[in-house]
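Hey all, quick one. A colleague (J.T.) asked me to put the 2-deoxy-2-amino glucitol-6-phosphate job into the tracker so the inputs and the structure tokens live in one place instead of scattered across chat threads. No bug as far as I know, just bookkeeping. Sequence used:
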Amino acid sequence: MCGIVGYTGTGKAGSIIIDGLKKLEYRGYDSAGLALQNEGKVVIIKTAGTVAALEKIYRGNCLTAKTGIGHTRWATHGRPTEVNAHPHGGCSDDLAVVHNGIIENYKLLRSWLIEEKDHQFRSETDSEVLAHLIEEYYDGDLLAALRRAIDEVKGSYALAAISAREPGRIVCVRRDSPLVIGLGKSENLVASDIPALLNRTRRVMVLEDGEFASITAEKVEIYDAGGKPVEREILEVNWDLEAAEKGGFAHFMLKEIMEQPVAVRETLRQRIDLPSGKVDLSELAMDTGEISRLKKIHIVACGTAYHAGLLGREIIENIAGIPVDVEVASEFRYRRPLLAEDHLVIVISQSGETADTLAALRLARLRKVKVLAVTNVVGSTIAREADQVLFTWAGPEIAVASTKAYLTQLVALYLLALYLGQVRKDVDPALALDLVKGLLELPAQLEKLLADEKLEKLRAYSNHLACWDNAFFIGRSLDYPVAREGALKLKEISYIHAEAYAAGELKHGPLALIDEGVPVIALVTQKVVLEKSLSNIQEVKTRGGAVFIITRDDFGDLIRQEEAVFTLPPVGDLLAPILSVVPTQLMAYYTALARGSSVDQPRNLAKSVTVE
Ligand code: AGP
């Protein structure tokens, strides 16, 4: 997820663009740049680091420039360096492009441009291909060149381009990544999101998928994929800036919960092949011989990432048949873990900077054990020091309470389990195909779940929950790690003392704590232990506990008749954890709202724990 801004008008394009980029840094902030039409050339200024770093080196250059484009990056292909920062030019210095998205066939296009058309590339990014393609096809009309270039491209893109040969003009196109156009007085803008426009205008038009636009200070023309002009409604935005940065949601946490379908879709993109059901993680460049000789996996992480690891154990053991240990990094790093060269250590970290997890990685490497990192941040310390990295494409996660990053960690672990199993020929092809199909259905199921009016029941129960200082989450089998994650979410943003127990453990002590009205959230999605889970719920209810059940629609009336219940769309035991955690995230969110705690920045906590 990156941020794009374009401006053309009578103002100082450079400073207007930089101001707009600052409002988009929640979309990415590891490198930034801008390109300005200036005295018959396109001048590109860019740097690693934040927009503030760009502002420092921009200061005062090209002050007369009236047209330009800018970009703040969240690296996917190519490290967050100056040369990989956007904008990207072609071979000449009269054109520039900024891009948000992933060009899936960039390697093919890059080889063709280099070998057949003699283009010289500078960066290791997929996006630079777009600049050379447009340059290759430019024949006096930038929009026509853009159209021809896009015809060759597969993937997701929101893209803006300028040429020194067409002063005052910006052309753009989008597919799967957002672009909005701002209509000002003798000026017009384009951006990835509304916050970048609000200092100049509140009149916006949304570009739809597949549409192109040609923008000058006086005119905005929108065309459909076939080149037909399109009339578009002008919207009046009444959000304040803060609301706009959260996409109109009250908190980043809620926005990021709602972004989960897209985050899962992006993490799956290009890694699954249908109808074969094969998972392609060749990006890991893992030695297949080493994979076949693997005797054990150690998953090491902290907090929510550790809970993803607990599910990772079940997933990898179930699918790939490799024994897995899971441990919190702060313990692993001070023990003498039994490691061997035919073991693999998997570290999971959203930020890629957690001190304990980094220390565990370094310990494993010291002991000559290969380390694979699952992380959300390209260029993070953990990403740079691991032997292999499986990136989650959740985009920047701002709220301290991790939601979309956690969900994409699970997806990454399912993909990894299937990949390892397929390389070792240990996974039943029918199971693999079934799971792959199930994974591909997840984004739509998540969208359905997040739009379900039954979520109101969750909100009602959260109001009850908010009146208590203690709460319990229970679950069996794969429901137990989800119960632990649900308890952590509730704990960290509502400050309620929430504990998770394996449901079968209640009678060994915790049941003594159940009394009239005590909130107990029961995860019941595992068919294999359904009967046992139901009897645990009865144990709690007969002692007065106020039970809320998160279960599956396909479990029939047996459980649906309960009044406090949220049913998930039909899903198998193995994939259920990806859906069942979402109601617990929303429950934590609603409860924290009801208790008035600070949702995005809870007390005593930090988004990335870079100290011990
Ligand atoms: C999760 O909601 C918490 N913010 C915290 O437990 C977090 O998961 C943990 O600090 C690990 O962070 P990481 O994934 O960036 O390594």
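Adding what we noticed when we looked at it: The pocket of 2-deoxy-2-amino glucitol-6-phosphate is lined by residues 302-305, 349-351, 354, 357, 400-402, 492, 608-609 (CB under 6 Å). The radius of gyration is 26 Å.
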